[in-house]
Amino acid sequence: MTRILCAAALAVCAATAAPADPLTARQHEVFSATCTHFGNRVETAPSEVDTTLLAALAESCAIALGDLSEASDSDDEAATYLERLAAFKATVVGMNVKRVFAGGAKTPVSATGEYLIARRMGLLGAYRAYASAADIRMAGID
What we know:
- This protein is mainly alpha-helical.
- The chain has helices spanning about 1-15, 25-45, 50-70, 75-100, 110-120, 125-135.
- About 75% of the residues lie in helices and about 0% in strands.
């Protein structure tokens, strides 16, 4: 009887000490697509476009996705950052699509506009929390 109780207690301790749930296949797909999106935007941007923020987002996205895949101490912050980054991407892409199809302005959201949107959505705060937890520092976001 004592063995059963000890085994049950160990199982409970192990369950409560277990790391956060790993990425689902869908989350990994969404986060990978988000990283690819920002990487492609940097690569295909005209030379006169300031890609500092986009490059920092692409690089930090890849690092955060790698951290989540390897189960690091910064998993919660990385997941929050990637979720906000995916939401930011969806917002900006949605705004650009509306501009094209609504008959309004035919120009995409500017780099300044993207920065302000990212700030308003909490993306920059999520990045700072992740960067602090993962002990990384990149120019272009702060």
